[in-house]
Amino acid sequence: MSKDTVVLAPCVSFVLNSDVSKPPRHIAIIMDGNGRWARERGLPRIKGHEQGAHSVRAVTEACAELGVKFLTVYAFSTENWKRPREEIGALMALLEQFIAQELPGLMENNIRLQAIGRLADLPNNCQRALTNAIETTAGNTALTLILALSYSGRSEIIDAVRTLCCEAVAGRLDPEKVDAARFSAALYTRDFPDPDLLIRTSGEMRLSNFLLWQLSYTEIYVTEKLWPDFGKDDLRDAIAAYHKRERRFGGV
Ligand code: FPP
Asked: Which residues span the domain enclosing 147?
């Protein structure tokens, strides 16, 4: 019997993700609860986002240490544009500052920065900071940190459908040849594997329009912790829970 097989009862066994020396290759995170964290302390919401940026740094470092290859964080959704103008402005300023501040650390730790979403919607200074960091870190190979910005799963799928329709109309694509692989190759995430583990903080049981196609077989871990309180030990707990899961990908 392999070390990955657990005997539950004499005639029942199943396979776990129990090679604990191997972390999930790709972790995706819905970073929720910044506003509640601030409210509990009588602070403005932006203070929660600022503290949330510290958690992004801590979790990125932890992923690099643990050997995770891809980390995708939901930093700003297409729906977040409906928030008050001051909060959007503060979040964009925080994003620009975060990218500039983190760049030396990303280089030092061999971390590549990437972004997914309707990036043209971002203010010009954010786009410039992002492009600069993406280009500067392009050759790094330890971990890829992917910021989902002005992102939603539905808009990503719509953009992919448009791309494929244009290809078909131009005569470069036979519609009969569209399959899961061809569709995946039209998504923003075409260069990344699907997430193995999705973490959502603050206890909400929703996908909130995040990576709708890519999460089909992802293990989901929800914690009550608010994102600004989520740290390295919480990441380790999430990975430990993942290692106890049975992944069958629709098989038996
Ligand atoms: C959700 O919490 C969080 C966001 C909409 C923004 C996430 C942003 C950060 C973690 C900080 C900046 C990130 C980077 C990469 C610089 P919420 O505001 O909806 O919280 P609530 O549900 O408690 O109100």
From this structure: 5-152+185-246
Give the pLDDT confidence score for residue 249 in this predicted structure.
82
* Domain count for the chain: 1
- Taking the C-alpha atoms of residue 27 and residue 196, their distance in angstroms, rounded to an integer, is 6
CA of 32 to the centre of ligand 1 (A): 6
- Is 32 annotated in the active site? yes
Domain presence at residue 240: yes
Which of the residues 80, 109, 132, 209 is marked catalytic? 80
Query: pLDDT for 190-200, tens place per residue?
Result: 999 999 999 99
The tokens describing 62, both together, are 């932890």
The answer to whether residue 169 sits within a structural domain is no
- pLDDT tens-digit readout, 97-111: 999 999 999 999 999
Whether 80 sits among the annotated catalytic residues: the reply is yes
Q: Of 242, 90, 69, which is closest to residue 146 (Cα–Cα)?
A: 69
Q: Domain with 144 in it: what CATH number? A: 3.40.1180.10
Question: Catalytic pick from 17, 32, 34, 234?
Answer: 32
Instruction: For residue 179, tell me if it sits in a domain.
Output: no
CA distance 209 to 143: 25
Ligand 1 pocket: which of 92, 99, 227, 229 to mutate (most atoms <8 Å of CB)? 227
